[in-house]
Specification:
Layout: E1 2-3, H1 8-15, E2 20-26, H2 37-48, E3 54-58, H3 66-80, E4 84-88, H4 91-95, H5 100-116, E5 120-124, H6 136-152, E6 156-157, H7 159-168, H8 186-204
Parallel strand pairs: 2-3, 2-4, 4-5, 5-6
Antiparallel strand pairs: 1-6
């Protein structure tokens, strides 16, 4: 449950045989299960990309919305010097009732800025929870993340769909959630980490679509055609 796209900076790091540096933002950095996310992501990536040394700098803040993370991006990127930014985004914006157009604009601008510095981006859309499944504003934020990913040409982890599927496959219902909080438990974090790793690995197998050659303009004849004698 993901959408792939080119990851040029990640490919360059692998080609140069150097550690892959990832900056993880968004979501919650609160103590508890969430604190294990970087380790789970690192393990999932090293399984998906054997022989690749992965380092993860996790800088998520509890309850942070997209515009807040965007304001910190310049500092975070300057300090971490990442090849790839993995951004969990949208859940807190939806809960905070951020205007969807303002959210989409802030996200698109931030993603564009990251990519302009030759850094790859993978977006992770909001958490699925039955309590918000019918909420129009929540679903508009989910859709906005997907739209930005498509417009910016970056990979997208469809976390909402993945967790929806996971919840439908267990008798425990939302076994991926930490009680009534908008936070993932160990199962949910492991599921997300595996989907992020799979998205990155699959995107790396994607090749550039060759451009169709342009038709050469018609050239005038070198000599005038001879006329048949009258």
């Amino acid at each position: 449950m993901y959408t792939v796209a080119q990851l040029g900076a990640v490919k360059a790091a692998l080609a140069e045989n150097r550690p892959l540096k990832i900056l993880a933002i968004g979501g919650s950095a609160a103590p508890g299960a969430s604190a294990s996310y970087p380790a789970k992501l690192e393990a999932a990536l090293e399984h998906a990309l054997p022989k690749v040394d992965v380092t993860i700098d996790h800088r998520g803040l509890p309850g942070e919305i997209a515009s807040g993370a965007a304001e910190r991006l310049r500092t975070m990127v300057a300090e971490a010097e990442p090849d790839l930014v993995v951004w969990q985004v949208g859940t807190h914006d939806a809960i905070a009732r951020v205007d969807v157009d303002a959210f989409a604009s802030a996200l698109a601008e931030a993603v564009g800025w990251i990519r302009s510095h030759e850094i790859d981006v993978v977006l992770v859309d909001p958490i699925y929870t039955a309590s918000m499944a019918a909420d129009v504003d929540y679903n508009r934020i989910v859709e906005a993340v997907r739209t930005v990913a498509t417009q910016q040409g970056v990979p997208l982890v469809r976390r909402y769909e993945a967790l929806h599927y996971l919840s439908s496959r267990t008798d425990k219902g939302e076994g991926h959630m930490l009680g009534r909080q908008f936070r993932l438990n160990d199962l949910g974090l492991r599921c997300m980490a595996e989907h992020v790793a799979l998205t990155i690995a699959t995107s790396l197998m994607r090749t550039e679509t060759p451009k169709e050659p342009k038709a050469a303009p018609a050239q005038p004849p070198l000599t005038e055609p001879q006329r048949a004698p009258g």
